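Submission sheet (multi-component)
Chains listed below:
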Amino acid sequence: MPKKNAETAGKRPTIRDVAARAGVSVPTVSRVLAGNYPVAPATRSKVLRAMRDLDYVVNAHARALAGATTKTVAFVVDDVTGPFYAYIARGVEQQAASEGRLCLLCTTHGDPERELAVVELMREQHAEAVIVVGGAWDDEHYRERMRYFATALDRSGSRLVLCGRPSPGDDVPATVVHYDNEGGAYAMASHLLSAGHRRISYMGFGEGLTTTDERIRGFKRAHADHGVEVDEALILPGSFTKSSGHELTKKLLAERDDVTAVFAATDMVAAGVLKALREAGVRVPEDMSVVGFDDIPLASDLTPALTTVHVPHEQLGREAVRLALHRGPEVDDRVVLGTHIVVRETVAPPRRR
Amino acid sequence: MPKKNAETAGKRPTIRDVAARAGVSVPTVSRVLAGNYPVAPATRSKVLRAMRDLDYVVNAHARALAGATTKTVAFVVDDVTGPFYAYIARGVEQQAASEGRLCLLCTTHGDPERELAVVELMREQHAEAVIVVGGAWDDEHYRERMRYFATALDRSGSRLVLCGRPSPGDDVPATVVHYDNEGGAYAMASHLLSAGHRRISYMGFGEGLTTTDERIRGFKRAHADHGVEVDEALILPGSFTKSSGHELTKKLLAERDDVTAVFAATDMVAAGVLKALREAGVRVPEDMSVVGFDDIPLASDLTPALTTVHVPHEQLGREAVRLALHRGPEVDDRVVLGTHIVVRETVAPPRRR
DNA sequence: ATGAAAGCGCTAACAG
DNA sequence: CTGTTAGCGCTTTCAT
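Outcome: structure written.
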């Protein structure tokens, strides 16, 4: 039986079919495909015609197998629907596309099992980079795990990128693209302190969460620099949700009357805070100042518009793929992007008591 | 020179290395990998051990080349950051994961060039399904294009899925997962009409957009059924953005004083409407009723909470991959998911004038 | 139950 | 410039 031929069989045409139809050899077709090798213009157009006639498309898998690189980066998140993640995703996708890469999307729902499965999958796929996004619990177990992921991926020729997470250690073969949580929190707390606030509640403390740790550190450092003592009882544990902000605020209002400002751990929390305040008839910013963190679109849509810390989400995503793709002695492995406060309408000096 | 061996070279171990280490043949390893063929338990565990020892992972590309299916579905959107898309994405990703599939994410930014490029890419990748999401311009050109995409993908053995878009024609080899725009709009307009509203403005009319066409049709049919004439001057063209709703409302307020309700084309538009109303001191729902469409999370967060039409975003995404993956005579090719109104706080009977 | 042999579709040295 | 010769790592017949 002769070699399978797409013109007779009902299958996808292969490079061989194209070669046959154009009357050239297979490698020649491969060369016009790759474009990085001299081919006589006449031959070239014959081949192109044949490809068109046959409606030929290369087989990405065959190509990957034969050595050419895979051209895919993976993007691993807890959940795509968070506005926080969505914008990082956009940055990742944009940069990937502009570098001619495809983007694999994987979600873990915070499940360590799935996280591991995803990493294995990416090893199978030979993804060039695996970008893991979002805060984490900063304990030894986490670092151990990331160290394992990093080396496993490294062995498979791909690169782990930790985005918005702290480095698991300097010797770990991973790229880290982080943003300045502490600096942002410091600036924001200073903003409040400078306006005269002395009793500030931090809402949404998450024990052991890297995001929290870093933000709290900035919060406290600002207090120290302003010579203001931090009231630990005002650092309220909670999750990063609107309802958490809502509950916490109701409770705070019931228990204390000396607090003049709320530093919400995230914009989402701040949204809940504002809601509770509105329900309680507390005016913002006249009676109470409120600030958030993240600068998601919601922040500017709240009433009053939220003063918050801007995190460069999209840029974070873009840098993640850029750094992973262009590695080398010239390029940094660990990067921290700046944050800055965005002043809107939720901060005013405290009222005379 | 002997065959490359991972234990000596610094490369990824292959199935051959595993075979060697386990003292069996390559096909045997392949069999324990696939699991769908009898292998002696003893041999089996020897192989498993070898794989573990070598930290072996299959090469997805080699596997795809050799015949096993690709196990990837592609998800094509305009922009990941829209809450609308994000939830469909979540559905797609969830279902894909639960069916053991990987999910490719591609964005087009509404650029036809990129859209075409993406489809070609997916042909190269042998994606099992290519899910295209979001409204479209319902003209002959669109149908032509989708027809082309569908047949091109079909020839490559993959399936085009149109999600939240109308069918380009019955003979086209594509799966269509749509939702009931007209029914939702009909129900919502009826809700307003039943409450006594007679002058309702439809804000965010998009000429030739399928989404708009379908919603307007329901809007008009409800009016007809209630014996109320539609004032065409109240159907206001605009984009699906908050600022559009904001602008349109300011203008409407300045020009007309007989309108008692606004039907916003989307929740985003409704958010802008509410903002403009608040700025103008018009109370909702006492002075003006407002409704939206989509039921994105924002809807319940607005003040007052928005009465709107629920679209089953996640389910849309899940069905899209489910139907594409399990095709057959038993399974439907064209599916329309239901919508329903969600009554919250933005509708009341019109005030006596 | 296991091994030998033959590709899947492509790229990559080599020659000419 | 172009063709020849080898694989990439895996899955399948087909034997044994």
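Remark: Chain B has 13 helices and twelve strands.
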